[in-house]
Amino acid sequence: MLSEISALQSTNTTLESIDLSQQAFFVSGTRCFLTQRPHHRFTTQIKDHDVLVSQLKRELAKCSSNDAIAFGVLPFCKTQQAQFIVTEQAHQYDKETFKQWITAKGTLKQDTMPSLERISHRQSQHHYESAIREAKKLFANEQLEKIVLGKQVDLYFEAPLSPETILTNLLTQSPSGFHFSFPTEQNSTLMGVSPELLLRKHGQAVLSNPLAGSAKRSNDKAMEFKLKQALMASKKDRYEHAVVLVEMSQVLQPWCQKLTIPSSPSLLSTATMWHLSTEVEGQLADANTHVLALANRLHPTPALCGKPTADAYPWIHSLEGESRDFFSGIVGWCDKHGNGEWVVVIRSGEISANHARLFAGAGIVAASDPTAEWLETEAKLSTMLNALESNQAYHQLSQIKMRATA
Ligand SMILES: C=C(O[C@H]1C=CC=C(C(=O)O)[C@@H]1O)C(=O)O
C-alpha cells in the first residue's frame, strides 16, 4: 500500500510538468515510459542497417547511465531520415496509474477539445478508389501481388489542440495497444495507438504480431459474432494476411535458431476494428543482434507496403500522390543492450497547433472492392477521430463536401 501511495505521489510530481511537445511517451503492456531531461536529439538515415545501428550505439554511449534509452521514429520511406530522442533515464509508470493522473489533471484544468471547423482530404474517395482500380491492373499483369494504399486527411480546429488531452482520450477510449507520442523536429506531435507490434526483442527472444485483414466492429453482439466468423472465413483477407507472413518469415529465418509461426491466424480487436493476427515467436541465433537491425529489415512489411516490397514502393508514391513521411513508419525504443520494442505508426495523427493530419490505409489484393476498402480506411480513422472528439463532425463535413462536389 505504501509503495502504491508513493508511486502515485511521484507520478503526480512528474505529471505536473508533463509536456508532450518536448517529451516522448510509449506504452508497453502495463508499463509506460516518458522521457525526462537531460536528453539529446539526433537524426539519421535508415537505408543502411549497419550505419543506423552504429550511430544509435554511439549516441547511447554518450549517456553515462546504464539505463539510457533512445526513443525514435523511422519514416515509411527508406530515403527519409529517422528522428531520435536519447534520455539518460525514462520515467516509468504503471499504465493505469498514469491514466488516472493524466485524466485527473485534465479535469482539474477543465481541458476541452476545440471544435472541428474544416476538413480537407488529400486523397478524395474518387482518387482512392481510382488508385485501387489502377492497382488491380498491376495484379492482373503480375507486376504486384499486394499493395497497401493509404490516404491522409487534414483537420482544422477553431483553437490549438492539446496533445495531453488527446493522449488522455486515447488511453481511455482505446485501452489496448501501444499508445505513443513523439515530438518531431518539425514542431508537431506524432501520436496514436498502434495495434501492431513489429518487433520486441529481449536477449535472444523476439516477438512480432503482424496484422492484416480487417473488419469494422459493431455495437450489436450478434452482428459481432457474424462479422468475426466472416473475417476468419474471408479468402481475400486470409490471402492478404498470408502474404505478410511469408515475407516476414523469410526475413526472420536467417537470424533465428528457432521460429514459430502458427498455421492459421487468430482474431485481435481494437476499440473499433477486428483484425486477422498472428504471433510470431523466435529465438535469435545471436542475443547481441540489435532490435533495430532486425526491425529495420522487416520494415515495411507487406502489411504497410506490398509485395514485392521494392516494386510496391514507387507505386504507392505515384498512386497516393503524397509522401507518407512518418505515417506507416515505425515508432519505439531501444536500450544500450540492443533490446527494445517497435510498433507500426498506424491509427495515428500528426498534431500541430490547430491542425491534425490523420492517416489510414488498407491492404489491396486482386479480390479487393474499391468502395469497401475506402470504408475500411474510414473506419480505421475513427480511433483518432474519437480521440479528437470529432467523429460526428468529420462525417457531417464529409457529407457536405460530397454534396457540393456531386
Ligand atoms: C495500414 C493500416 O492497417 C494495416 C494494419 C492492419 C490491417 C490492415 C488491413 O487489413 O489492410 C493493414 O495492413 C492502417 O490502419 O492504416
TrEMBL record:
Which Pfam families does the entry mention? Answer: Chorismate_bind
Q: Which Gene3D superfamilies match?
A: Anthranilate synthase
Which EC number applies?
A: 5.4.4.2
- Residue ranges annotated for the Chorismate-utilising enzyme C-terminal domain, each copy included: 125-380
What InterPro entries does UniProt report for this protein, alphabetically? ADC_synthase (IPR005801), Chorismate_C (IPR015890), IsoChor_synthase (IPR004561)
Q: Which UniProt keywords apply?
A: Isomerase
Q: What class of enzyme is it?
A: isomerase
**Name used for this protein in its record:** isochorismate synthase
- UniProt source species: Pseudoalteromonas maricaloris
